[in-house]
Amino acid sequence: MENLQEMLAAIRGLPSAEYASERSGLPSAEHASERFDKRALVQLHEMFARSHANVGAEPGVALCMSVAEPSAPSVALRGLRSIRVRDLRVGRTHRGRVLYGTLCVNPFKISGVMTLLEDDHGFAVRVAIYNVAQAASLSCIYPQGAKVAIKEPYFKRALDGSLAVRVENPDNLQRVADFPAEIREPVVAAVDLEEERSKGNECFRKQDWHGAVIHYTNCINAARLEINDAAARNRILLAYSNRAETRLQLGEFERALEDCNEGLGIKPGHIKTLYRKGRALHGLTNYDQACEVLQNALELCPWRPEIEAALHLSKALSAQSRRGKYDISDFLLGRRPPAEVADFVGDLEIKMTKDSRGRGLFATKNINTGELFLVSNAVAVALPDDRAVMSLQFDHRGNINTSSQENLVAAVIDAANKSQKLLPRLYALDDGSAQACASVPAMELFQTDTNCQETKVPVDVNRIRDIIVRNAFGGAVQTYTDRITAAAEKLASNEGFSGLWLLPSFINHSCLPNTTRLDVGNAMFLHASKPIKKGEEISICYFDTLVPFPQREVICQAWGFKCNCKRCRLENFLKPSLRHLHAQFEALHDKALEETNAAKTAGEEFPADLPKSAEFAEVYEKLEQTLAKFRKMKEEEKNWVRASFVSAYWAGIQSNEFFPKTLEDPIPSGDEILQAVVSTVPGDVRTFVMAAKQVEGLKHWVGSEGWAVQYSATQARDACIRVFGNHGEHVIQALISAHAQCAMF
């Protein structure tokens, strides 16, 4: 179904397009759009909006615009010639032209933001704006009555036959009052300066940041005519300062800094503006400069608690960025949400891999187990509150959910439109081009407090989309079953979100990783899960690797690469010998999982009567019998294979029937299984859960004393450090107690 109204009708039994038009007396969307009939288009828009409100944002419900024309980078308004609605040509991107008009309806969003624009001749056109960040308030960004400019408009026919302007990059649709110099609009002397400032203040109180920017800008432009008047200069100062605050609220730190500098040029010691400049520098991660400005403000006006708090935070983050010392214990123990943290880059370098896989991240000194070597805040994230829409979702083959990917694209574009400092860093990531893969960016580009050369790099939507496809991370790496127990999930990660991180994007995958990733809010913490030697490549798991080789191979293919680690080479060699076990694993895994979950729901105590789990565990018994035939295989290599089938063992130990039939049956002990997984994926949270359970189990049966308890406690402590990094002893013990309550399978 290509028509929007027909899709809505199919989903909720609403009237079709023709029927709706007949009942309302309106022409079809196609006819109304071809005549640029404002009245009819407004009524159709409102009808669509009501239908959408009834349906909700369900997948596939959208103004179907077919395939978008390749997106051109956003260009400056200066030099573009205006074009009227009636002069738009179907199927054309109007290069060098700009469409001015007024938004004449309240917007609504399906896959794109839908609105209407009326030009100064009274003709209207539908506008579909894509890649708009989810967090944005549409009524504030695209309010009815706002004057806008659409740069180089792309005019096309949608699948329902109607005509519309498609805006691929939201930065190509700009509120005119934001850029008075570029559009060369004359300043109207009759503007009441105090009234404009009051309107700006009212918008500010309502948290209508975009509206506040409009009115403060009008005030600044009009006041320039009276620049020699002391009262007018004071109004300009206050307008610059207040506009800086609105831009801080919008996350536009570079523009906020510009406004602060303009205001301080009028009155260098203005306290509020100094305070706001310090916060703008903080937002740009220029922590040392922020400290200088905030210290200056505090000396001019002591006992201002908000300035003291901002200075304290900037000092703390400056220290974090230099020393790499963080206290995240309250977050790990579930006591409070994650606090803001600074980026930290340890002794690392980007260089080409020796086996021609492209670029990678390498250690420039030895790194000990548990040592933190990289903290990176996300460029943009899709948050778990909107998980069904926002998070990068992968199916069992590792394919990325397209709709969620597009929402992340929107969030990254939003961040890029706000920061020229970001774009050179963003464009250093792999976008699939030969040039990107062959170039090695300098590490200084990614250092905090580095004054990157800010060039006017255009925001290229298609290039950003390619970067996200190749570099985006989902939430914390999920297990094969997409389930980590609720307690571990709460403690170990803020699972559910997806996002784009800069330096971590250079880290390659390995099924024998040496690094653990920990998500703390929007920041990614990376520490060594085993000793890393100087010159060794940093590696992580892109997905759950505690599964047999065929499953890993399929997921790697979906990601577009082949893992050539020692473990994969070994299991590829063993593939013919293990083929029957691979098939049984695939057939029994989900059945055993369903049985175990049903037992948990019923409140059964483990071990329980779980025949499917016991049958699944037989796969592990057969694996041991097969491995015994390879007498020349090293024990470490056997452990890699055991780790691939470990979920069969974990399922089996929850069943009453999982016992060797004779003393000679080759069933490894729990400690041997733990060592097998640790030698393969040392930072996997399930190794910690298993170790913690062993400690609590031994304490229950033999008490707190004895060598066995001490040995298990040491194993659990080591596992905690591999998973969560180095922390105080009280934190480690609290984490051990919490994870002992988690389920393995």
Automatic annotation (TrEMBL):
<feature type="repeat" description="TPR">
    <location>
        <begin position="271"/>
        <end position="304"/>
    </location>
</feature>
<protein>
    <recommendedName>
        <fullName>SET domain-containing protein</fullName>
    </recommendedName>
</protein>
<dbReference type="InterPro" id="IPR046341">
    <property type="entry name" value="SET_dom_sf"/>
</dbReference>
<feature type="domain" description="SET">
    <location>
        <begin position="346"/>
        <end position="543"/>
    </location>
</feature>
<keyword id="KW-0802">TPR repeat</keyword>
<dbReference type="InterPro" id="IPR001214">
    <property type="entry name" value="SET_dom"/>
</dbReference>
<dbReference type="Pfam" id="PF00856">
    <property type="entry name" value="SET"/>
</dbReference>
<dbReference type="InterPro" id="IPR019734">
    <property type="entry name" value="TPR_rpt"/>
</dbReference>
<dbReference type="Pfam" id="PF13181">
    <property type="entry name" value="TPR_8"/>
</dbReference>
<dbReference type="InterPro" id="IPR011990">
    <property type="entry name" value="TPR-like_helical_dom_sf"/>
</dbReference>
<dbReference type="InterPro" id="IPR053209">
    <property type="entry name" value="Gramillin-biosynth_MTr"/>
</dbReference>
